[in-house]
From TrEMBL:
Protein name: Peptidase M28 domain-containing protein
Highest taxon of source: Eukaryota
UniProtKB keywords: Glycoprotein
Domain Peptidase M28 positions: 95-280
Protein's organism: Brassica cretica
Coiled-coil intervals, chain numbering: none
InterPro entries per UniProt: PA_dom_sf (IPR046450), Peptidase_M28 (IPR007484), Peptidase_M28B (IPR039373)
């Protein structure tokens, strides 16, 4: 789906009883792809590609690993029977937001967020991030019982329907955009918290110093003699800029202009958005020390 947020309420919150466009409206229809597609295993893709005739693939294609050397790109005589099951239906989306009221600046918000819906099992995406968010909530509860209170109000947010186009978080931002623009200090996003080794982060520039100062206080899980900040710098990692639109920080940053951070362990992982993103893959590959 093109764009983010509820397609029947583009630019305004899709709340119960609110204005909605019809599914036939061009502004809604153009959000959805018109060419059906299905993911294939590498083996099945190779069988189909091997049946093609026509011109050979450009040399830069197979040099980049996209197709085999000398592979043809069609047309061919093979007929592929593709069965695509899908439905267009309206569903209710539910966000869960826990509030810890600040003691000195209760009208200023520090927001931590993660989505809880997954393509399949979602051990990395989003359950590793959800685990981190829930453990932060547990630790806050211990502090609260001891009499601690944060200076500013802390919001812990579990977003729904992220995989459908950042719908839960975007609609919440659209509903609260005026208040957020005046009161939000920062949005901290943890989606795929653990997908491998090595710390990576993206942020808006005004939060770079804060992030690095925090990393100095955290012991590196792979080398107890070092801090995360020391290994982060030794690996020549840099804090990226959040120009992409692929997680729940998007509504906060691109719509409301709120300073944001997205952080995670592991540069990338090969089972992204597949049925292999499972607990078994997590304990064998992404995080084998944390069984």
């Amino acid at each position: 789906m093109r764009g983010i947020g509820d397609p029947v309420s583009p630019g305004w919150p899709g709340v119960v009883g609110g204005e909605k466009l019809s599914l036939e409206d061009d502004r809604v229809a153009r959000r959805f792809p018109k060419i059906p597609s299905l993911p294939l295993s590498l083996r099945n893709a190779e069988i189909i590609l091997a049946s093609l005739g026509g011109a050979r693939a450009p040399v830069e294609w197979w040099n980049s690993g996209r197709v085999g050397s000398g592979q043809r790109v069609g047309p061919g005589q093979t007929v592929v029977n593709m069965t695509l099951q899908g439905e267009l239906t309206m569903k209710k989306v539910r966000n869960v937001v826990a509030t810890i009221r600040g003691s000195e600046e209760p009208d200023r918000y520090v927001i931590l967020g993660n989505h809880r819906d997954a393509w399949t099992y979602g051990a990395v995406d989003p359950n590793s991030g959800t685990s981190a968010l829930l453990d932060i909530g547990r630790r806050f509860s211990v502090l609260l019982k001891s009499g601690w209170r944060p200076r500013r109000t802390v919001l812990l947010c579990s977003w729904d329907a992220e995989e459908f186009g950042m719908i839960g978080s975007t609609e919440w931002v659209e509903e609260n955009v005026l208040n957020l623009g005046a009161s939000a200090v920062a949005y901290l996003n943890v989606d795929c918290a653990v997908q491998g080794s090595g710390f990576f982060a993206g942020a808006t520039p005004q939060l770079d110093g804060l992030l690095l100062d925090a990393l100095k206080l955290v012991q590196d899980p792979d080398d107890v003699a070092l801090t995360v900040e020391e290994t982060f710098k030794s690996q020549n990692n840099i804090i990226e800029r959040l120009s992409r639109v692929d997680s729940d920080f998007s509504g906060f940053l691109h719509h409301a202009g709120i300073p944001s951070i997205d952080m995670y362990y592991g540069a990338d992982y090969p089972v992204y958005h597949t049925a292999f993103d499972s607990y078994d893959w997590m304990i064998r590959n992404a995080d084998p020390k944390k069984k």
